[in-house]
Amino acid sequence: MSGRLVDSYDLVAFDLDGVVYLIDRPIPGAVEAISALHAEGTALAYATNNASRRAADVAGLLTGMGVPAQPKEVLTSAGAAAAMLADELPAGSRVLVVGAEALRAEVREAGLVPVSTVDEQPVAVVQGYGPEVGWQVLAEASLAVRAGARWYATNTDKTLPSPRGPLPGNGSLVAVLRTALGREPDVVVGKPEPALFTTAAKLAGAQRPLVVGDRLDTDIEGAVRAGMDSLLVLTGVSGPAELLAAPASRRPTHVAADLAGLFAAEESVRVPASGEHGGWRLTAEGVLEGEGDPVAALRLAVGATWDGLAPAALRAGSPAAQAVLADWNLE
Fold this sequence. Notes:
Layout: E1 11-14, E2 21-22, E3 25-26, H1 30-40, E4 44-48, H2 55-65, E5 74-76, H3 77-88, E6 94-98, H4 101-109, E7 113-115, E8 124-127, H5 135-146, E9 150-153, E10 159-160, E11 167-168, H6 170-181, E12 187-188, H7 195-204, E13 209-213, H8 216-226, E14 229-233, H9 240-244, E15 254-256, H10 266-269, E16 276-277, E17 280-282, E18 287-290, H11 294-305, E19 315-316, H12 319-327
Parallel strand pairs: 1-4, 1-13, 4-5, 6-7, 6-8, 8-9, 9-12, 13-14, 14-15, 18-19
Antiparallel strand pairs: 2-3, 10-11, 16-17, 17-18
Helix pairs in contact: 3-4, 5-6
């Protein structure tokens, strides 16, 4: 039997929304899992595409939930975008900011001047998530880009997980400008670009980091691009149906229901599984038989679908399997 999953890595880099919390509510079991890692001395990092909070604010939110996080452990797409702007633009350059005050503060701290209108002649536009973003600032950004400003997006997550269900994310706001301008942003800073993860590993001096996320299109693809192993947890955006159809660029190394999977035996959470796994068996014809943990059934099923079997071709060979496939919207 293999050791615990977490014992194979020297850094655990967490996404936040959908992994640790939903907006501002901790996901059940997340605080206990991360606190246990802290107690064991495991190196941790938090890499989030959400540009509406600064690193210190994120650390404060986590600490308030019972996770003793430090600002230096937090990497945000807002901070990364501001650092990139500072590298590419002369000090004092005007940057039109679309997003929350946190993004404006990061731009200002980077030695640039945040502005709000095209009349202030910005040389760049940086766009990040903000719950108050509306038509007026999007219109100013559109005019600025048309006038020649370089367009940076902190991230392109289409949705943001919440306790009430997925909400429009920064990618949906980026899509407004994409439609108006008829083109893509010049630069996308956050995941799935690998910079947040590679920076976290560099700061920690890690040689074997593990990325933990809830989205295949950002967290897991970002880990693949960074050459890092990953754990997909099913507490946020991506679910079984998306995982079954995932292309090679978005396939995690491990899958678990939640962060408790970090403490499971590594071989028990690795994907794809084969043969008999967790009380289930999948035949060569794609018939799922047996009963047990639904996530164990999912690990078996991805082995078949990633090898070319259409997800819709999976069939139930037991009542428990029928219930699982129905939950995956396949029956």
